[in-house]
Amino acid sequence: MPYLNADTLLPPDLVAELQKYAAGQVLYIPSPPDRRVPWGYKNGSRARLEARNTEIRTLKAQGWTIDALADRWCLSPDAIRKVLYRARAAS
User: What gap in Å lies between CA 68 and CA 87, rounded to an integer?
Assistant: First the structure.
C-alpha cells in the first residue's frame, strides 16, 4: 500500500483536526463496510481453496484414505479431517 501525504490529499481543516489526535503518526483508515471484499475473493485464493476442498471431498467419497489425501495435497491428516468435517457440518 503506497504512502499518501495527508497535506496533499485532505482539506486543510481536516488535516488540522487529525493533527490534534495523531500528529506525526501513521494512520490506517479502513474501507467502508460496503466496499470491503472478503478474504480471497480479489486474488482468487478462496476459489482455489474451494476447488481443492471439493476435490478432497470427492476423492474421499471415492474411497481414498485420509493419509492418501494428505500425501496428495501435502496437508496433515488433521487438515484433511477439518476439510471433511466442515463439509459435513455445513450440509
Answer: 19
Give per-residue pLDDT as tens, 4-57. Answer: 899 999 999 999 999 999 999 988 888 888 887 888 988 999 999 999 999 999
Q: What is the DSSP letter of 31?
A: P
Instruction: Give the C-alpha separation, 6 to 76, whole Å.
Output: 47
Which residues contact residue 3 at a Cβ distance below 8 angstroms, ignoring those fewer than 6 apart?
Answer: none
Task: Judge if pTM exceeds 0.85.
Answer: no
Domain map (residue ranges) of the chain: 6-90
d(CA 50, CA 87): 11
DSSP 10: S
How big is the chain by its Cα radius of gyration, in Å?
Answer: 23
Distance of CA 9 to the CA centre of its chain: 29
Residue type (1 letter), 31 = S
Q: Positive or negative CA dihedral for 8, 22, 34, 48? A: positive
